[in-house]
Design a protein that fits this description.
The chain is α+β, with helices and mostly antiparallel strands and 181 residues long. Among the domains are: 37 residues, no CATH class; 64 residues. Helix content is 45%, strand content 8%. It contains five helices and four strands. A four-stranded mixed sheet has the order 3-1-2-4. Helix 1 packs across helix 2. The radius of gyration is 39 Å and the shape is elongated. The N and C termini lie far apart (117 Å).
Length: 181
């Protein structure tokens, strides 16, 4: 009976030590992860990441921290002082450069055709500015106020007189206050 209880006690002790050893590894890994996260935040704040991304920095930090943790676990007679880390030159601060605004599709700017309504109004101050469909077979133009004015994919602003001279005609759904009646 004593032999059996001694075996059970020894098994329980062995099991407890294995469980205890296994539970310290995740705690140590978690603390290394926390330390590396804190180091990353500090490095980002000081612009000393040296162009490393988070995964690269984490890999480097883990090897450093785990390498430092392994000798500390083994008893040493006299721990050697850690060499001072080499000073890291700060990376140049990235300058913010906004992305250029997308350029509108190039509209044909043939004779009397303009990319903007203001350019057309400057060219023909006494005439009505219309939107001409330059592609396709319709050869129509639209007045301001029409739902097609300035919205078709291929077109240009023109003076109404120039549009008529170029062979374009007014759309059937005239707007511009019904062409001023």
């Amino acid at each position: 009976m004593i032999r059996k209880s001694f075996g059970v006690a020894l098994s329980a002790l062995l099991f407890a030590s294995v469980v205890g050893l296994a539970s310290t590894v995740p705690v140590q890994a978690q603390s290394i992860m926390k330390q590396c996260g804190d180091d990353w935040k500090a490095a980002k704040a000081n612009n000393t990441t040296n162009g490393l991304t988070w995964p690269q920095f984490l890999k480097q930090c883990r090897t450093e921290k785990e390498g430092a943790a392994t000798p500390a676990a083994a008893p040493a007679a006299a721990p050697a002082p850690a060499p001072a880390p080499a000073p890291i030159a700060p990376a140049p601060a990235p300058t913010y450069q906004p992305k250029p605004k997308p350029v509108q599709a190039a509209r044909p700017t043939g004779a009397g055709q303009f990319a903007s309504e203001q350019e057309a109004k400057g060219r023909c101050p006494g005439d009505t500015v219309v939107w001409v469909n330059t592609k396709g077979k319709s050869h129509t133009y639209h007045y301001s106020g029409s739902r097609w004015y300035g919205t078709t994919k291929q077109g240009a602003y023109m003076c109404e007189a120039d549009a008529g001279a170029a062979g374009y005609h007014a759309s059937k759904s005239r707007t511009e206050q019904q062409k001023k009646m």
